[in-house]
Amino acid sequence: MRLVNEFTITKVNDLDTQMLTLLVEESKSEGFRHLNRLVTEYDAGTNKFDKEGEALFLAINRSDIVGVCALNQDPYSVIKEIGRVRRMYVAPHVRRFGVGRMLMESVIAEARNRYRILELKTDNPVADLFYQSMGFSVNFDLGNDTTHYLRLN
């Protein structure tokens, strides 16, 4: 397969979750469950990334969805100025092409419109390094639901 390094990041307001089937299967084969949760919650209507300050981004190469990353109001905080990075995943065959960085830059730009702090949780060492390279700080004192944060102001 020849890969053309042309990626588009698209903010979606209405997602046909069937379009994520291949990406969900890839993520499950790597032991990740978060994309399956994205689809389940989206289809159930419990998280459509449609509240104020929320967004869902897809990375597309040709007509294939090769990555996803979302922004939610932080469900673990009562402080309205905190956003949460959710469901970040990039297909293995396009990693190291900057897709994750483009997705995260889109989420950060969107978050700056509403939030003062952006938080996330990961236990993946590779993801930890990625988020630190994006400017996130590590603070395990923030509680069980947050491992990294980024001040946006």
From TrEMBL:
Keywords: Acyltransferase, Transferase
GO molecular function: acyltransferase activity, transferring groups other than amino-acyl groups
Annotated InterPro entries: Acyl_CoA_acyltransferase, Bact_Acetyltransf, GNAT_dom
Record domain N-acetyltransferase: where: 1-153
Name of this chain's protein: Acetyltransferase (GNAT) domain-containing protein
